[in-house]
Amino acid sequence: MRAVRYDGQSVYVDQGSPDPTPGDADALIRPTLSAVDAIDLSIVRGELRYEGIIGRRFVGVVEDAPGPRGASWIGRRVVATPSIVDADSEYARRGIGAHDPDRRMVGAHGHDGAMADRIVVPVNTLTAVPDELEDERAVFVIPVARALHAARLVRVEGRAFITVLGDTPDALICAQVMSRLNASVRVLGTDHAALALCERWGVKHRPQHEAGRRQDQDVVVDGVCTPESVELACALCRPRGSVILKPESPPFPGSPHPALAGVDLSPALINEIELIPALAHSVAEAVALLASGAIDTGPLVGRRFALVDAVGALRAASDPGAMTMLVAA
Predict the structure, then answer these.
(1) Which pTM was predicted?
(2) Which of 89, 115, 166, 173 is a good FRET partner for 136, with 20 to 30 A between their CA atoms?
(3) Could you please report the per-residue DSSP string of 180-211?
(4) pLDDT computed for residue 91 by the predictor
């Protein structure tokens, strides 16, 4: 089969990759559409140590599921939670499997990804996609799910002022989710075309360099997570407010994240600002929200590439201001 593979030095389309074989707890899926995301780009830049087939965001059709729980999945269109956790682990039993240090991640950590003709994932990671939700919207379930999780980490309803830092597709989705719960949401970014999309959704926005640092924001969601953005978030946040750290490329066990490297956290200490990482998510809730039509993903799609041109999709996704590139099998 064909597969987009990273070998530690370069990314290429492997025309002779072996077909995966599902076990009794697995499903064999034919991906119909994948989306390039920040983790894929981190891998091909050599920032994240991983070798194998890339791609963690996908929609596909289940072709085989040999286990006792698999028959009902065959022929269904699905998305999957990228984290793969042993159901018997202590973390899974406590309901925090997303933090299991032994977890695997589809297309990024210990498990081959979905930019291929076939992928195998555990049946218990699957969520069915309803007929009314097209593939082009369903590939956004992961950023929508993470935005929903971030919104629940603090009480958004009734909070006076909320700022989302960043104008990437993930940050713009987060702003849409937050604005459904609170009208006083604004986006600070650097890309004028991306910020202009906020007009379409009725979300306040302004260039980042124009924002005053008056420490008047109740919640700041940092969707950039660089040392500079974390310091800016703390400067914007009111005393005893909350800064949600929501990196596009979440850290993995044993892989340090640069977001807090060299950051002066004195303002957070002095003003008792709560720093809250937002990494986990519920795919099922995101599917339902997308199916309802409440989140507009159309303007967040860049270009569509064939699987054989996936390297071009990765290259296009690396351009400044790029929207989400899609890869079709």
Answers:
(1) 0.93
(2) 166
(3) HH-S-EEEEES-HHHHHHHHHHT-EEEEGGG-
(4) 83
